[in-house]
């Protein structure tokens, strides 16, 4: 089944404005932050945001699932992806709306009158990134908004629900409402992202409550290890392949669909376990030259965006993983979780589909003068990206 638009994919989590800057460990040391971590801000972290703003910085539309939603919409047909969360009534919220509109992403924010829009301080140190999040308004999302007459019909219309684990710190009832809606309907799919190690560590009960409803669960190796450590018992201390297989075999509310577990490992192979299959599959990651890497912040969100886009389009697991890796590769060449915001001329896209009917072309061409530069993925060959130039 391919995507037909019409907001088939609904994403829920915490919309944030990323305040991002490079750091020589000065701020990491000052605020006791680890070089490669994601935490919720405490009182002692509040001056961090002013410190970042006082140096050369970038403001980027963020929030993990919002990054994923923008990534999925980047690949999918217009009007396919809808994002829900809570913001304040301020300039930061206006910037988020503008960035999402430019990406073609529909947002249906709950607006809180008492809290400012959430923000995430992002410190870049080499290939490491440290995230410190002040949820603020994002922490004020309510089930009543999801179930309102304006929003719930959109929930009923969507066929795929994607929820970032960070939302388990905010509104578990909203997460469970989507999970149960998916489990009750044969044509709906529930996708969960582990999001960060502290979610299974400190929000274990909330995460465990959602696990019977996972049709797909996505995470990285650090998050998977943290999940296994928190679970304890026989899975504690096991390797990634065993953890993925164990997760896939957990009790499931809707037994008509097999659970799929996807664990990324940076440059090591992506591990995919399917319920009942036994040994998990591994998909190698295509290498990228070190000099091409600009910023790894949001690479996992981008992978999820590409992978979920493949699932929405009805692609096989292998191709969906390839789409995730492709979008992550594209993302790390940009500052923060961003994607080129130019859509392909219809003429060029139509010609390409006629020339290569069995290939996919998720990357929008970049117009240059009267030409179009297009990067293409050929999953079944050794060529990952080719460049084709066509008249615009």
Rg (C-alpha, Å): 20 Å
User: Quick one: how many beta strands?
Assistant: 17
The DSSP helix count reads 14
The strand line-up of the biggest sheet is 6-5-1-9-10-11-12-13-14
Low-confidence stretches: 341-352, 361-392
Portion of residues within helices:
25-40%
Approximately how much beta-strand content do the residues carry? 15-25%
Morphology: globular
Distance between the termini: 30 Å
Main beta sheet strand tally, sense and closure? 9 strands, mixed
Structural class: alpha/beta
Can you describe this structure?
With 392 residues, the protein is an alpha/beta fold. Helices cover 33% and strands 24% of the residues. The protein has a 9-stranded mixed beta sheet with strand order 6-5-1-9-10-11-12-13-14. It has a 5-stranded mixed beta sheet with strand order 3-8-7-2-4. Strands 15-16-17 form a 3-stranded antiparallel beta sheet, with no helix packed on it. Strand 9, helix 7 and strand 10 (189-193) form a beta-alpha-beta unit. It starts with 8 loop residues before the first strand and ends with a strand.
Brief digest:
The protein is 33% helix and 24% strand. It is built from 14 helices and 17 strands. With 392 residues, it is an alpha/beta fold.
Give the helix/strand layout.
Elements: E1 9-12, E2 16-22, H1 26-31, E3 37-40, H2 48-53, E4 58-62, H3 64-75, E5 81-88, H4 91-102, E6 106-112, E7 118-125, E8 128-134, H5 143-146, H6 152-157, E9 160-164, H7 172-184, E10 189-193, H8 198-202, H9 204-210, E11 216-220, H10 221-231, H11 240-248, E12 260-265, E13 268-274, E14 281-283, H12 299-312, H13 317-331, H14 346-355, E15 366-368, E16 371-376, E17 386-391
Parallel strand pairs: 1-5, 1-9, 2-7, 3-8, 5-6, 9-10, 10-11, 11-12
Antiparallel strand pairs: 2-4, 7-8, 12-13, 13-14, 15-16, 16-17
Helix pairs in contact: 3-12, 12-13
């Amino acid at each position: 089944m391919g995507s037909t638009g019409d907001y088939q994919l609904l994403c829920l989590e915490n919309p944030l404005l990323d305040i991002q800057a490079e750091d020589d460990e000065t701020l990491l040391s000052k605020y006791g932050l680890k070089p490669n971590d994601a935490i919720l801000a405490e009182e002692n972290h509040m001056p961090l945001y002013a410190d970042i703003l006082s140096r050369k910085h970038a403001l980027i539309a963020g929030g993990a699932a919002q990054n994923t939603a923008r990534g999925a919409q980047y690949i999918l047909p217009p009007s396919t992806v809808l994002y829900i969360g809570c913001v304040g009534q301020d300039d930061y919220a206006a910037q988020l709306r503008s960035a999402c509109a430019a990406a073609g992403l529909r947002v249906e924010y709950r607006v809180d009158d008492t809290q400012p829009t959430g923000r995430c301080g992002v410190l870049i140190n080499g290939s490491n990134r440290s995230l410190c999040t002040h949820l603020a308004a994002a922490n004020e999302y309510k089930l009543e908004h999801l179930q309102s007459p304006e929003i719930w019909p959109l929930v009923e219309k969507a066929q795929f629900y994607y929820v970032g684990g960070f939302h388990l710190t905010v509104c578990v009832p909203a997460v469970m409402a989507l999970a149960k809606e998916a489990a009750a309907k044969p044509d709906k799919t529930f996708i969960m992202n582990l999001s960060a190690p502290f979610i299974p560590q400190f929000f274990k009960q909330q995460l465990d409550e959602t696990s019977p409803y996972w049709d797909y669960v996505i995470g990285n190796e650090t998050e998977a290890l943290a999940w296994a450590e928190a679970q304890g018992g026989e899975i504690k201390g096991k390797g990634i392949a065993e953890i993925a297989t164990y997760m896939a075999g957990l009790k499931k509310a809707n037994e008509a669909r097999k659970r799929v577990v996807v664990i990324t490992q940076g440059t090591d192979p992506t591990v995919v376990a399917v319920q009942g299959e036994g040994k998990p599959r591994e998909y190698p990651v295509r290498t990228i030259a070190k000099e091409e890497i600009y910023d790894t912040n949001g690479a996992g969100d981008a992978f999820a965006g590409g992978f979920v886009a493949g699932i929405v389009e009805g692609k096989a697991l292998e191709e969906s993983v390839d789409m995730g890796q492709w979008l992550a590769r594209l993302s790390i060449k940009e500052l923060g979780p961003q994607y080129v915001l130019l859509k392909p001329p219809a003429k060029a896209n139509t010609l390409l589909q006629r020339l290569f009917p069995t290939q996919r072309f998720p990357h929008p061409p970049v117009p240059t003068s009267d030409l179009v530069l297009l990067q293409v993925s050929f999953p079944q060959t050794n060529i990952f990206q080719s460049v084709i130039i066509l008249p615009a």
